[in-house]
Amino acid sequence: MGKQTMRFMSDNTATACPQMLAALAAANHGFEMAYGDDPWTQRLDQALGAFFGAPVRAFAVATGTAANALALATLSPPYGAIFAHHEAHIACDECGAPAFYSGGAQLMLLPGEHAKLTSSTLAAALDAHPVSVHTVQPAAVSISQATELGAAYRPDELSRLTQVAHAHGLKVHMDGARFANAVTFLGCHPGDVTWRAGIDVLSFGATKNGALAAEAVVFFDASLVADFELRRKRAGHLISKSRFVAAQLLAYLEDDLWRRNAAHANRCAQRIGLAAGSRLIAPVEANEVFVQLGADGKRALRAAGFEFYDWGAESAGTARLVAAWDQDEAHVEALCAALNAL
Amino acid sequence: MGKQTMRFMSDNTATACPQMLAALAAANHGFEMAYGDDPWTQRLDQALGAFFGAPVRAFAVATGTAANALALATLSPPYGAIFAHHEAHIACDECGAPAFYSGGAQLMLLPGEHAKLTSSTLAAALDAHPVSVHTVQPAAVSISQATELGAAYRPDELSRLTQVAHAHGLKVHMDGARFANAVTFLGCHPGDVTWRAGIDVLSFGATKNGALAAEAVVFFDASLVADFELRRKRAGHLISKSRFVAAQLLAYLEDDLWRRNAAHANRCAQRIGLAAGSRLIAPVEANEVFVQLGADGKRALRAAGFEFYDWGAESAGTARLVAAWDQDEAHVEALCAALNAL
Amino acid sequence: MGKQTMRFMSDNTATACPQMLAALAAANHGFEMAYGDDPWTQRLDQALGAFFGAPVRAFAVATGTAANALALATLSPPYGAIFAHHEAHIACDECGAPAFYSGGAQLMLLPGEHAKLTSSTLAAALDAHPVSVHTVQPAAVSISQATELGAAYRPDELSRLTQVAHAHGLKVHMDGARFANAVTFLGCHPGDVTWRAGIDVLSFGATKNGALAAEAVVFFDASLVADFELRRKRAGHLISKSRFVAAQLLAYLEDDLWRRNAAHANRCAQRIGLAAGSRLIAPVEANEVFVQLGADGKRALRAAGFEFYDWGAESAGTARLVAAWDQDEAHVEALCAALNAL
Amino acid sequence: MGKQTMRFMSDNTATACPQMLAALAAANHGFEMAYGDDPWTQRLDQALGAFFGAPVRAFAVATGTAANALALATLSPPYGAIFAHHEAHIACDECGAPAFYSGGAQLMLLPGEHAKLTSSTLAAALDAHPVSVHTVQPAAVSISQATELGAAYRPDELSRLTQVAHAHGLKVHMDGARFANAVTFLGCHPGDVTWRAGIDVLSFGATKNGALAAEAVVFFDASLVADFELRRKRAGHLISKSRFVAAQLLAYLEDDLWRRNAAHANRCAQRIGLAAGSRLIAPVEANEVFVQLGADGKRALRAAGFEFYDWGAESAGTARLVAAWDQDEAHVEALCAALNAL
């Protein structure tokens, strides 16, 4: 908050975008039924269906952890196995939420370049896991789009992966906390990296990309919804004045706000990536940049007023630089200059 | 939504009050640390401490169910017993959230006039529950202020109850979804019906009384906080852009907004109560009115455009009429006239 | 253990009967597949099917608490409601096992004479529990045969109760820790108070009636088995050397051992009941006798060397006197004399 | 069960040893208090204390899965992290029991030769897991003695590992399903590979080594017992006629029965290991032998009447050959001949 501070810590530190605040004000008239029986919430299925180009069932929640954990608990029994990358947010940053919500499902963590799972890694893991009454039961795969290392799955990568999963009876969940960034980078249709590629359930994030607090769990197969609504309620994630969450999501979809916000963040990240050059440890395909700086490099940047998180162990010398939807371009310029000067 | 509709269904159907929307806009500047390390969230302890006249630890969440369940899970082990009124919100309206969050705590449901627990009822229940390795272990009492029947506990009622609880080693939680309404009715200091009366943890509600979505779990004994923050995170209730929840709560406390909002709702309820006369099944001590109407009475009111919920079984003929912070006084007048005409 | 001690505390304090120990020895030859793939375990379905006169799926476990909790967790989702008598073993004596196993199901505890649920009590409770996304979802009814007060449900009582349950979509579980005693008292066929009367799942107890440690969960509807076996395994209740549990159960069924053991215990209880006369607080219909003794009466009996538990609060003055399959008749005579002398 | 069948599938397929059956008969006299208040159960602490050469608190259960899961649930909160080898029984063969019992603890699975964890692997894993409110909280390490690949940890290996664990605030659990085999192989004192080496809690197995069904959870630090007894009860693992489990354990310790049984099994395994020669994939340090046979080798052995499990994926061509306490030496000779003939 000092004058010199330039934050690249997380897109969660960003503001909410004006269109979303305006949507709250616009929804704030008259008595409306609570708990989702309001016109805003009831428009979600249609609005997200139009966005994805397919019928969906969509449910608003306030946080990404809730979206992920509720989706996974709906897909996995308490004795289920959920396959994911070992750097996945659900494995590393949600304090055990998937196990809590599912009643004990076990994460089966796999390696993969740029935090991606591949179809062959998944196939090998499933082969090495003979199923009996003694084992956890393979139930789901969870992947992140963009990944934790800022990479974007291509549609064909996803198709190959979901084919393996479905062939083994597993459902596929996508953590889309930065879904807009990935789709914007890929320049594809949102359906191309979801239902057309075999994704069953998506955590559709908006908070990091401009909302105050709004995410949606999107089911592309209505039969999978099952008891989702009961699980959401007993977790305290059924918002009483639901219109205020739904209104954010509707505004997010309108006039491609999601894409405009993501495009700005992505452009900033691309420029940082160019400046980082050979220091990059992963391709820049969303709004995050992972850079090998070493202890000296990190110290120099921080001394110059740049704030960012270490990635992995502090001693590894790797920085995560995140650009937000409202990132100040002057700060980006300054960061690029500082990276060039290292 | 038709022209003639006059809603008395729930204070959850109300709008958000302008001061709280304004607080969102005021907080929407600059990059701020996520997950509570922002100036708004960090002011909560002090602001709520000033409100209660005692040091507190306070944690913002988005829903009352989350507040209640997280508080109770912090107080009770998975094999604990939580004593509550059989009409309590945690028993009837939260889809099993306390058991989910605590990992299985058993609700021990007790009777009591106007949905209040009394010290003697609690003492008798504890005496009839000899504790051994075979039984659930008494851990907590949970009461509602105001109660589910719109009654307000007096300070001395609370003190007697918490003395019994504490003497048996139980902690006491208060569900304060309508705390402001009760305190406003009682005309007392917020501390008089909380820490001074032996309450250990309070779910401090703001949503029903004008917020968009903001509640706080308030610990009057810092040692009870224990692992609350980890439980909140793994439940997906740690809001990333926490400033927007905290800002609502701070605005709620400022200039007695909480009391002004509650006072309006209470006044409306009082007028409805007067009109209901001998049909009342509980005293009107907050913003809810419970009226014995019979099938004909309910039909007549609904035909006249009034919307409200049945209370208990439909066949019981009882209506719950709730007045909100922004209830239209003309609707209240119309309702009173209709009640008088029955 | 002193010479003078005469135990009427619990049928759990009894010995194992010789036929069951002999069965262990008889099964102790050769290498047999573990975890139930042995001839003894594989004969259980057929043997219990013959016993009940209907096809069953039966699963051996070591304790009654495991049997009850596994059965209920199979019938109820984590957000389910299980209706039971407020004195039921699952509510009072299993340290919260049903909630643990089900992941949080809520017990809905009802009153009833002699610890029986009636169809009308159940119907009223269901009517008073309007179901929505906010409520726990009615899933099962659990009753005890014999009840916690030593009473036996008649077939028609059961039929009326299960009809109400089934009409509301609930499944019915019977805790048969003392099933043999009830059936022996009633003089009916085991099928008359189970599947013919609408019972869906039975915890079939043998331990209290002569086994070392052997119970079976018996499904009368194979489709309800669902994931029972996975739940049993992850609870650590799939016994590796399963033949030794199954052998006990097979011996228990052979030559009506179950009935002979129960008949002795019941006869002892009947004699005690006669001696107790008007002090009885419940009819003697199994092997337990509940007697109002007052503080003086209890003290006198204990001073004379009789051991037994208080029933309910100590101050209530009520004793529970239990006769086991191997109860010493001389002790029973002595107890009757002492009761007569009070 | 055919004449030609020679089983090397599991020590769980073995019989119970006569001394243990005899102990059941010897304990089967008189009425004894249930649920552990009997002289056999009450002697466990002292008997196991003498065995280990240190004061212990010991609790009998019927299965190894129950022992492991109860121990770990006592050491780890629901949001805890438990570090273990990726081939550990708790990870692969207990259907998610640790997560069920702990309420969601996450297994952090690590590699290691011969299914051993090393201090450096653990240290690296802990360094790579920065702890915050967003992460699961490191709580425990669980290792197996002997390991899943039949290797035995040396005392100094254990000491180094437990030092790293303790330095990070983690407790250390040992799964001793084949503890007797490891100790017998090492020729050390039971205390040398438990409390003297920093082990906090041990699952002390007897079932695989001659019991019918008897394991003990042994705490070397009484303060860690915490709520173990409540957790055991609500899991249905408090055996009512506890004397029959305790009597097995006492007989197991008497006259070094544990060592004599293990020595026979180990000797058989050693001979098989010698015959396997370079096909061994792990040293033979207990009663299990892991042999690379290829598809042809496996087929040949099975055609000759030998029964055994594949280890890992069937396609890997690896066999697990287990020798039991009562393994027929003629079968061992035949197996050795068959291995030599491959």
Determine the number of helices of chain A (DSSP H or I, runs of at least 4 residues).
14
Could you give the count of β-strands of chain A? 12
Could you give me the name of the CATH homologous superfamily of the largest domain in chain A?
A: Type I PLP-dependent aspartate aminotransferase-like (Major domain)
Structurally, how many domains make up the residues of chain A?
A: 2
The separation of the N and C termini of chain A measures 25 Å
Report the C-alpha radius of gyration of chain A, rounded: 20 Å
CATH class of the largest domain in chain A: Alpha Beta
CATH topology of the largest domain in chain A, by name, is Aspartate Aminotransferase, domain 2
Q: Strands of the biggest beta sheet of chain A: in what spatial order? A: 2-8-7-6-5-3-4
CATH architecture of the largest domain in chain A: 3-Layer(aba) Sandwich
H/E order of the elements of chain A? EHHHEHEHHEHEHEHEEHHHEHEEEH
Main β sheet profile of chain A: 7 strands, mixed
Multimerization state: homotetramer
- How helix-rich are the residues of chain A, as a percent range? 25-40%
Identify low-pLDDT runs of chain A. Answer: none
Secondary structure topology:
Four copies of one chain form a homotetramer.
Chain A: E1 6-7, H1 18-27, H2 39-42, H3 44-52, E2 57-61, H4 64-75, E3 80-85, H5 89-92, H6 97-102, E4 106-110, H7 119-127, E5 137-144, H8 155-167, E6 171-176, H9 179-186, E7 201-205, E8 215-219, H10 228-234, H11 243-253, H12 257-276, E9 288-292, H13 294-303, E10 306-307, E11 309-310, E12 318-322, H14 329-341
Parallel strand pairs in A: 1-10, 3-4, 3-5, 5-6, 6-7
Antiparallel strand pairs in A: 2-8, 7-8, 9-12, 11-12
Helix pairs in contact in A: 1-11, 3-11, 7-8, 9-12, 12-14
